[in-house]
Amino acid sequence: LPERSTNLLGVRHIVLVLSGKGGVGKSTLSTELALALRHRGHRVGILDVDLCGPSIPRMLRVQDRAVHQCDSGWVPVFVGQDRAIALMSIGFLLERPDDAVVWRGPKKNALIKQFVTDVAWGDLDFLIVDTPPGTSDEHISTVEALRPYRLLGAILVTTPQ
């Protein structure tokens, strides 16, 4: 078994949001699901692994925030005055929010693994993982990195066609 990071030990459930194509509303569904769970009193985090199109920071109006380090890794960005939702995205690591990410597979896969092992999530009831469109290496890397943890399941977003 892969080595387990202690940073996810406080996360009770992990939910992946996937689709076979882009533009179907994965990020919107991830955001709305996190907000609905938070409204019901749950502690929620969103991990945005859509490295080429990180839209969650913009959707939650925190795209101007920066990620900081602590003893156990990166501290996620917290949304709202009540710090209701923890969020990690490559969007926080870019010099400008609209910068393009043009990386090959190994570099993307390494960042996904780092997001899983090096983000200090704390205690969460749910971690929503917003994935990129399609069925790429990023999906395989995400599932492999999360395999040792309590993956609740996946939501597949489709279109009516």
UniProtKB/TrEMBL annotation:
SUPFAM superfamilies: P-loop containing nucleoside triphosphate hydrolases. One of its GO terms (cellular component) is cytosol. CDD domains: Mrp_NBP35. One of its GO terms (molecular function) is ATP-dependent FeS chaperone activity. Keywords: 4Fe-4S, ATP-binding, Iron, Iron-sulfur, Metal-binding, Nucleotide-binding. Pfam families: ParA (PF10609). PROSITE patterns: MRP. One of its GO terms (biological process) is iron-sulfur cluster assembly. It comes from the Eukaryota. PANTHER family: CYTOSOLIC FE-S CLUSTER ASSEMBLY FACTOR NUBP2, NUCLEOTIDE-BINDING PROTEIN NBP35 YEAST -RELATED. This is NUBP2 factor. It comes from Pachyramphus minor. The gene is Nubp2_0.
